[in-house]
Amino acid sequence: MRKLILLVVLGLALGALFGQLMMSVPGYWLVRVGDTSFQTSFWFGLVLLLAAFIVLHFVLRLLMRMTRPVSRFKVWNSRSRNRTAMRRTVRGLVALAEGRWKRAEKSLVKAADDSSTPLVNYLSAALAAHYQGRYEQADTLLKRAHLSTEGADTAVGMMQAQLMLDRQQYEEALAILTRLDRHLPNHPQVLKQLKQAYISLSDWDGLRRLTPRLGAQQLISREEREQLELQAYRELISQEARQPGDIERVRNLWADMPDHLRTNVELIVLYAEALVRGNEQGIAERLLRHSLKEQWDNRLVLRYGLLEVDAARQLVVAEKWLQERPNDPDLLLTLGRLSLRNAYWGKAQEYFEASQRQRPSGVVCAELARLYANLGEHNKSQLYYRQSVELLDKSLPSLPQPTEPEDTLARSNGTRQAS
Fold first, then answer.
1. Which phi and psi angles does 371 have, rounded to 5°?
2. Distance between CA 81 and CA 161 in Å, rounded?
3. Tens digit of each residue's pLDDT (9 = 90 or more) over 308-330
4. Least confident residue range of 79-83, 159-163, 263-267, 386-390
C-alpha cells in the first residue's frame, strides 16, 4: 500500500514538472516536404518521435525473427526434446531405484542423447544392465558414458571398479582402483573400494598399508581399524612363518606393526614361531620372556617351554615364575619339559604330576606315560596312557558308537548291501 501511494505521488510530481516545462518552454515542429508542410507543438512532436521509435524497434525485431525461422524452430525443438528426455530420465531413475532393471535401462538409454546430463543416464543404464547380468552391454554403456562428457574419467572408473567387484573380478578392479588412487589420492570412495579389493584378493600387505589412510580419512571406526590391522599382520606373519627364507622380512613386519598389536598374544606366538623357523630362537626366547613380564598367558608359557636355547637358564627363569604362580598347571607343564631338556628326570616327573593334580590333562598324561616308559616303569606308563586316551575321549564330540559285536557286524553288513 505504501509503495502504491509513493508511486502515485511520484507520478503526480512528474506530471506537474512536465506540465511546467510545457508552459515554460514553448516551441513547435515544422516539417516541409515539397509543397506540403506539417506543423505541431514541440512537446507533441517529441511524443510522436518517441512513439515512432518504439514502433520501429518492435517492427525490426519482428523482421529479424521472420528472417531466422529455421533456427528458432531448432531452438524450440531442442527445448522440447530436452524436457521429454528429462521426464524419461526421471522415470528411468525411479525404475532403477525400484529394481525394475529392464525398464530403467530402456528409459535411460532412450533419453541419453537429448539429456542435459548424459553421463548420469549412461552410468545408471550401465548399472541396470549389470544387475540384469548383461555385462557386455554394461561395459558398452560405460564406454558411451566416458565419451559423452569431458572429464568423466573418475566417475566412470569408480563405477567400472564397483561393477568388477560385484562380478568378483577382483584383479581387474584392483588395477582400475590403483590407477585412480594415483590420480586421486585419499579419495574416500576409491579407498573404500580398495579395501574391498584387498580383502577379496587376500592382499594383506596392501591392506596393512591402506588401513592408516582409511583411519586418517575417518572412513572406518577405531575398532574396525584394529581388527583389519590384526587380520593383515596375522596373515602376513603366518605366510612368512611357512616360508622362512628371509627372516628379515618378518622382523621388518614386526617393526612396522602398530604398538598396540605388539601386545597381542596371538601375534606374539606367531612371531615367535616365525623366528624359530628362521633359526632365531634367541630372539624368540627374549620376546616370550619380556612378553610374559607384561602379560601372563598360558599360550606364551607353553611356547616358552618348547624353545631350544639355553635349557638351564630357561629353567632358572621359569622356576622364578613358579614362586609367584605355584599352582599354574601350564607353568608346571613347561617346567617339566625344561627339566627333561636338562636331563632332570625326577624333577620332570614331579612337575608333570603337580600339573596333573592341578588340572587333569591328556597332554600331561602323555608326557608322564612317555617318561615312565623310558624309565622302564611300564605299568605306570600304561596307566598314564589310558588316562590320556580317556581325557582325549572326553574332548571328542558325542557321536553314536557300537555297543556289541553283533550290532557292529549288522551295521557293517548293512553298509555293504547299501553299497
1. -65, -50
2. 33
3. 888 999 999 999 999 999 999 99
4. 79-83
